């Protein structure tokens, strides 16, 4: 598969999740493991341009796929993705554990055009839990990046 623009070939157990592949085999630990059961959204990444929970995705099914993680979102070392910058500008995190998943999901929300209102953003990001309760600022960050 291609991960953040780099072709990767790994030999893995066929039960390995994409999340464990990223974190344990490719050292891409920006993608977080919260529940490991599809309930929290901390592991959100993009596969072929669509949001997925990496904990629920079997890595062996992704042969040839393009995977983007939080590490691959910025265009360069010097310039953050607009939504990463918006999270900083809006102070949209506290502990930060859910942030990579929130940002990857927010990018999907923007690309899919679900940013018409705060309620629409909340609905389309409802799979991403923030235990610190930063939802108001997360929505503001998505709105900033969408405009
Ligand atoms: Fe995948 Fe929680 S770790 S949804």
Automatic annotation (TrEMBL):
PROSITE patterns in alphabetical order: 2FE2S_FER_1 (PS00197), 2FE2S_FER_2 (PS51085)
Keyword field: 2Fe-2S, Iron, Iron-sulfur, Metal-binding, Oxidoreductase
CDD domains linked to this entry: fer2
One function term, GO molecular function aspect: 2 iron, 2 sulfur cluster binding
Pathway(s) the chain acts in: Alkaloid degradation; nicotine degradation
Occurrences of domain 2Fe-2S ferredoxin-type (ranges): 1-73
Cleaved signal peptide residues: none
Keyword GTP-binding on entry: no
Ranges in a coiled coil: none
Protein known as: Xanthine dehydrogenase YagT iron-sulfur-binding subunit
Organism whose genome encodes this protein: Kribbella caucasensis
Species classification: Bacteria, Bacillati, Actinomycetota, Actinomycetes, Propionibacteriales
């Amino acid at each position: 598969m291609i991960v953040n623009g780099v072709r990767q070939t790994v030999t893995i157990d066929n039960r390995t999740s994409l999340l464990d592949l990223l974190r344990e085999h490719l050292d891409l630990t920006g993608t977080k493991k919260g529940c490991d059961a599809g309930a929290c959204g901390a592991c959100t990444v993009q596969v072929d341009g669509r949001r997925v929970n990496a904990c629920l995705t079997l890595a062996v099914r992704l042969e040839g796929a393009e995977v983007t993680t939080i590490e691959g979102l910025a265009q360069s070392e010097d310039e953050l993705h607009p939504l990463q910058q918006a999270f900083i500008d809006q102070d949209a995190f506290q502990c930060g554990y859910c942030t990579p998943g929130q940002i990857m999901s927010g990018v999907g929300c923007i690309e899919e055009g679900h940013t018409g209102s705060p309620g629409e953003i909340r609905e389309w990001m409802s799979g991403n839990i923030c235990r610190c309760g930063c939802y108001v600022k997360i929505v503001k960050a998505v709105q900033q990046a969408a405009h």
